[in-house]
């Protein structure tokens, strides 16, 4: 009775502040709607004990309860995320435990490899259900805003290759190469000699297969290798969606390793998610805690200012910075729609628990990018200390001329 009274008072307080398309189903069969409109989200509390999740509705509490099956949640993922965030804002203080906390994790090769395998080695078939046909698992580039996902992902790769001013026959290292889309494009369009490295056995196997099927084995080598073990020098280096796994304290070392691998006149491009908190804090209301526990173990996001400082500490001069936050919000929204459209197949491949994790994770990321909690930056750099003549006069080379006959869709 005590818990039920607490829940009743909480519901009255929420109703006084918000109108939400939310229905709460209690363990005794009672239904409570928090607005007069048709509910778009339903939260079912199967027993009295489950009420505590609503009484402290942080993103970590409700997210964990949903993932572990302690509560049931029905609705579209984007509606679920919007409702839960509204409850968190209304019920919790955006400070203390639920603030943008800064947490640091220890990193070593074994831990990093285990974290990568946890996230990426679900199965290749799992990722194929919601990614584009080339399986690009990073922010797409919507040049005009109306592109489909496959087009936007290839535009992103081309945008990167133009940014680094890749020339025919040059060597290219792709750190965290995923399923090989960038190196395949670089080899096919520019004749670049490419090395792609990943710590994911599943990615390595499929990327190697795709290189072979493309007939590009003479130009591309896919390695199951830590970037710290790569030797030699490369004309161009790309790192797309990888440095989030490095750790805040290790970023200068990471960029220092890139400096050592970069040819004297080389160009590097780092594409990665950043915190929008100047102190490198994670997303508020427990969102970061949920992601660390269920999605990206030991992942850490740095503020763009911290990243730029770390690059300089790694002896790299930054020559261009571009914010693609809007692009990632859209990318994650499309991934969410694809995920839900293939929901039954995803459940078969990943199981109920992982389905629930990713169901809220993808939509939550789209929401976080939309709300300016996190961002995405592409940063171009060169070895520091060079003469000014090494830098381009303008950014014109990053954008194809309108008279170029249109964008090339071939892969």
Which word captures the global form?
elongated
Tell me the helix content.
40-55%
Tell me, rounded to a whole number, the average pLDDT.
90
The name of the CATH superfamily of the largest domain reads: Vaccinia Virus protein VP39
Uncertain parts? none
CATH class of the largest domain: Alpha Beta
* Strand order across the largest sheet: 7-6-5-8-9-11-10
Quick synopsis:
It contains 14 helices and eleven strands. It has 411 residues and is of the alpha/beta class. The strands form two sheets. Strands 7-6-5-8-9-11-10 form a seven-stranded mixed sheet, sandwiched between helices. A four-stranded mixed sheet has the order 2-1-3-4, covered by helices on one side.
């Amino acid at each position: 009775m005590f818990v039920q009274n607490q829940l009743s008072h909480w519901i009255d307080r929420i109703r006084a502040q918000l109108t939400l398309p939310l229905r709460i189903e209690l363990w005794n069969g009672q239904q409570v709607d928090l607005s007069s409109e048709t509910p778009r989200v339903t939260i079912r509390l199967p027993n009295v004990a489950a009420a505590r999740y609503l009484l402290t509705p942080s993103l970590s509490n409700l997210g964990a309860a949903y993932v572990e099956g302690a509560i049931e949640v029905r609705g579209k993922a984007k509606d679920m995320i919007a409702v839960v965030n509204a409850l968190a804002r209304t019920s919790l203080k955006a400070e203390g435990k639920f603030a943008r906390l800064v947490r640091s994790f220890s990193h070593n090769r074994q831990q990093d490899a285990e974290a990568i395998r946890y996230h990426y080695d679900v199965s290749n078939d799992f990722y194929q259900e919601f990614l584009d046909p080339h399986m690009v698992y990073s922010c797409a580039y919507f040049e005009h805003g109306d592109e489909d996902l496959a087009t936007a992902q290839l535009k992103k790769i081309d945008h990167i290759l133009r940014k680094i001013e890749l020339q025919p026959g040059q060597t290219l290292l792709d750190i965290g190469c995923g399923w090989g889309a960038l190196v395949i494009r670089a080899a096919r369009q520019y004749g670049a000699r490419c090395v792609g490295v990943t710590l994911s056995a599943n990615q390595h196997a499929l990327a190697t297969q795709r290189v072979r099927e493309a007939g590009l084995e003479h130009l591309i080598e896919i390695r199951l290798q830590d970037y710290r073990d790569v030797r030699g020098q490369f004309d161009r280096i790309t790192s797309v969606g990888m440095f989030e796994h490095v750790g805040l304290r290790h970023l200068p070392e990471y960029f220092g390793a890139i400096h050592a691998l970069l040819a004297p006149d080389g160009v590097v491009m780092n594409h990665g998610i950043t915190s929008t908190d100047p102190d490198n804090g994670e997303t508020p209301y427990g969102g970061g805690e949920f992601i660390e526990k269920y999605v990206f173990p030991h992942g850490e996001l740095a503020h763009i200012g911290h990243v730029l400082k770390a690059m300089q500490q790694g002896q790299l001069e930054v020559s261009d910075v571009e914010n693609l936050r809007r692009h990632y919000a859209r990318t994650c929204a499309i991934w969410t729609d694809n995920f839900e459209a293939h929901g039954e197949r995803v459940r078969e491949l990943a199981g109920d628990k992982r389905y629930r994790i990713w169901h809220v994770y993808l939509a939550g990321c789209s929401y976080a990018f939309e709300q300016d909690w996190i961002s995405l930056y592409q940063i171009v750099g060169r070895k520091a200390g060079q003469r000014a003549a090494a830098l381009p006069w303008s950014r014109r080379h990053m954008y194809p001329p309108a008279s170029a006959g249109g964008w090339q869709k071939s892969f």
